[in-house]
Design goal:
The chain is α+β, with helices and mostly antiparallel strands. It has one domain: Alkylmercury lyase (Bactericidal permeability-increasing protein, domain 1, Super Roll), CATH 3.15.10. The chain has six helices and nine strands, in the order E-H-H-E-E-H-E-E-E-E-H-E-H-E-H. The chain has helices spanning about 40-50, 55-65, 100-110, 160-170, 180-185, 200-210, and strands spanning about 25, 85-90, 95, 115-120, 125-130, 135-140, 145, 175, 195. It has a five-stranded antiparallel beta sheet with strand order 3-2-4-5-6, covered by helices on one side. A four-stranded mixed beta sheet has the order 1-9-7-8. A hairpin with a 5-residue loop joins strand 4 (about 115-120) and strand 5 (about 125-130). It is globular. About 45% of the residues are buried.
């Protein structure tokens, strides 16, 4: 398996009664990169990055500065053991702590990639990426979440580390069989989250890999 393991958790933290979180949908008629983040994500990402970000595209640019360029295969959150989040190429099987890394893998490779993941309730979701990164998703009603731990600390140094980013973000990047399943989950986690369509998730992955 290519790449090093990183300190990612795969379970969302249950929300306490006094915790408030905001769940939003990212909907855009143009590029998902132009979509404005809800205020809860702007402030939390800003605290983690040490700079405020207003849009999805600004978050991508800030993350690329952390890794000094585009995200490479070795930067992905590989797991040293089998997980529910799998990317399969013609000659390699990758296990990830976060299913979205398999989507990023798909846009990095010039070959078809099969992706398997499970939603928080255990529902299997299958994705097939063509050699140009286009996703076919089963079930067709599936959506994807994106968020960050609302208690994340600001960077201790000049910039945050990619490992800390994975630990704060991975638990809130999930696939769901329906929008309703996402909404039920979002009410149980201590994090601001958004959700997006498969097409928007693919565009975001391509931007991270540029």
């Amino acid at each position: 398996m290519t790449g090093e393991s990183c300190a990612c958790c795969d379970e969302a933290v249950e929300q306490s009664d006094e915790t408030e979180r905001t769940a939003n949908w990212i909907r855009t008629e143009t590029s998902v990169l132009d979509a404005e983040l809800p205020e809860a994500l702007r402030s939390t990402f800003g605290r983690f990055l040490g700079q405020r970000v207003e849009t999805v595209g600004e978050w991508v640019n800030a993350l690329q500065r952390v890794v000094d360029g585009s995200v490479a295969i070795e930067d992905l959150c590989h797991s040293p053991s089998e997980t529910d989040h799998v990317g399969i190429t013609d000659d390699e099987t990758y296990y990830f702590a976060c299913f979205y890394d398999a989507v990023i893998l798909a846009v990095m490779t010039a070959e078809p990639v099969g992706i398997h993941t499970e939603s928080p309730d255990g529902t299997a979701i299958e994705l097939q990426a063509s050699d140009d990164g286009e996703l076919t998703v089963t079930p067709e009603t599936a959506v994807f979440s994106f968020g960050i731990d609302e208690t994340v600390d600001p960077p201790a140094g000049e910039t945050p580390t990619l490992e800390r980013g994975y630990a704060a973000i991975c638990p809130y990047v999930k696939a769901f069989p329906t929008p309703e399943a996402y909404e039920q989950w979002a009410d149980t986690v201590a994090a601001p989250t958004v959700t997006m369509s498969p097409a928007d998730a693919t565009e975001l992955a391509a931007a991270l890999a540029e």
